[in-house]
């Protein structure tokens, strides 16, 4: 398991790699990658801590890859802010018939009127199973509803889905007509 300090570093990595790279003096490339060496220097963290965070992060939020130039880079697998212009380059994937989204009950009326919107992020995030959707909703409220998204029908109607490296389903918007309350 991660130590408390490593969990704190993990949060800092999420902030920098998804939302505010400039606070660490970093610039993400078009795919959202930064050299591992630059991140270590910017966050003054050890390689051991970085490896632990990448390996034991509860959601596998970070991916490490060696480029064609031999440089080792790291990026967040999903969750980027709209203000950070990153294209993960994920291919379109045929979704399952249903996907799920957990949200505070207080959002329900607005969602059934306007659909699911990406808000500050690049995509609406959907889960492949109900327990995961419940956990996502509980980050924000104890009173959570799980919405069933008719992903198969959406795909048939031309909506595009992607799946992040850590298994989160991504799409641009979900119209209310494809949402039911489970
Ligand atoms: C809601 C975590 C009212 C939406 C998770 C959500 C996920 C609306 C909130 C990832 C709405 C946005 C993303 C509408 C959407 N009216 N409320 N029309 N449309 N909402 O955090 O899906 O731990 O941007 O239901 O596991 O909660 O960070 O999205 O409650 O994968 O790696 O607006 O964040 O991953 O909140 O979570 P978020 P999310 P990490």
Automatic annotation (TrEMBL):
Q: What Pfam families would the database entry show?
A: PTS_2-RNA (PF01885)
Extract the GO molecular function terms from the UniProt entry.
Answer: NAD+ poly-ADP-ribosyltransferase activity; tRNA 2'-phosphotransferase activity
Keywords assigned by UniProt, alphabetized: NAD, Transferase
Show the InterPro entries listed in the entry: Ptrans_KptA/Tpt1 (IPR002745), RNA_2'-PTrans_C (IPR042081), RNA_2'-PTrans_KptA (IPR022928), RNA_2'-PTrans_N (IPR042080)
Q: What is its EC number?
A: 2.7.1.-
Kindly state a single biological-process term from the GO annotations of this entry.
tRNA splicing, via endonucleolytic cleavage and ligation
- Cross-referenced PANTHER family: PUTATIVE PHOSPHOTRANSFERASE (PTHR12684), TRNA 2'-PHOSPHOTRANSFERASE 1 (PTHR12684:SF2)
Q: Which family does it belong to?
A: Belongs to the KptA/TPT1 family.
Q: What does this protein do?
A: Removes the 2'-phosphate from RNA via an intermediate in which the phosphate is ADP-ribosylated by NAD followed by a presumed transesterification to release the RNA and generate ADP-ribose 1''-2''-cyclic phosphate (APPR>P). May function as an ADP-ribosylase.
> Can you say what this protein is called?
Probable RNA 2'-phosphotransferase
Origin organism of this chain? Actinoplanes teichomyceticus
Q: Which gene encodes it?
A: kptA
């Amino acid at each position: 398991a991660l130590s408390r300090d490593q969990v704190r570093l993990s949060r800092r990595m999420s902030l920098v790699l998804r939302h505010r790279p400039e606070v660490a003096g970093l610039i993400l490339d078009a795919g959202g990658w930064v050299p591992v060496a630059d991140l270590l220097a910017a966050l003054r963290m050890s390689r051991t801590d970085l490896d632990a965070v990448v390996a034991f992060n509860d959601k596998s939020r970070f991916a490490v890859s060696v480029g064609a130039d031999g440089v080792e880079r790291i990026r967040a697998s999903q969750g980027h802010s709209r203000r950070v212009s990153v294209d993960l380059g994920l291919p379109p994937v045929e979704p399952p018939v249903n996907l799920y989204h957990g949200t505070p009950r207080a959002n329900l009326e607005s969602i059934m009127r306007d659909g699911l919107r990406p808000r500050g992020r690049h995509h609406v995030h959907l889960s492949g199973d109900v327990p995961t959707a419940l956990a996502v909703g509980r980050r924000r409220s104890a009173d959570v509803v799980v919405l069933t998204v008719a992903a198969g029908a959406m795909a048939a109607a031309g909506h595009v889905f992607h799946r992040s490296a850590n298994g989160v389903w991504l799409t641009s918007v979900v119209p209310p007509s494809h949402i039911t309350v489970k």
